[in-house]
Amino acid sequence: MKLTWTFYPKGEPGITLSVIYVPQLDAFSAAGYLEVDTNTAYVNWTNFRVFDSTDQSAKKSLFGSLIRVDRFNTSTVALP
């Protein structure tokens, strides 16, 4: 599943984030991963639902806690 979220930081142009649900991440408690170059977040189901909600404050908080990576690859994610 995929969605997009556009937010507007003060004094800056809008940022559109693609959010992708990755079932393999359901085993993690981490917020998820952010591929900085592509503005794509890879998250578990719980966090996908946050991005799919209307709670802008929760979305911004979750965005801030995503782990920044150069490239996300589900085969390199170490499951607990």
Task: Describe it.
- With about 80 residues, this protein is of the alpha/beta class.
- It has two helices and five strands.
- The protein has a five-stranded mixed sheet with strand order 1-2-4-3-5.
- The longest helix has 10 residues.
- It is globular.
- The relative contact order is 0.24.
- The model has no long low-confidence stretch (mean pLDDT about 90).
Q: What are the secondary-structure elements, in order, as H or E? A: EEEEHHE
Mean pLDDT: 89
State the helical fraction.
10-25%
Q: CA-to-CA gap between the ends? A: 23 Å
Question: Any descriptors?
Answer:
80 residues, 2 helices, five-stranded mixed β-sheet, alpha/beta
Question: Which helices and strands occur, and which strands form pairs?
Answer:
Elements: E1 2-7, E2 15-21, E3 33-35, E4 40-43, H1 45-51, H2 56-65, E5 67-69
Parallel strand pairs: 2-4, 3-5
Antiparallel strand pairs: 1-2, 3-4
Report a brief summary of the structure:
The protein is of the alpha/beta class and 80 residues long.
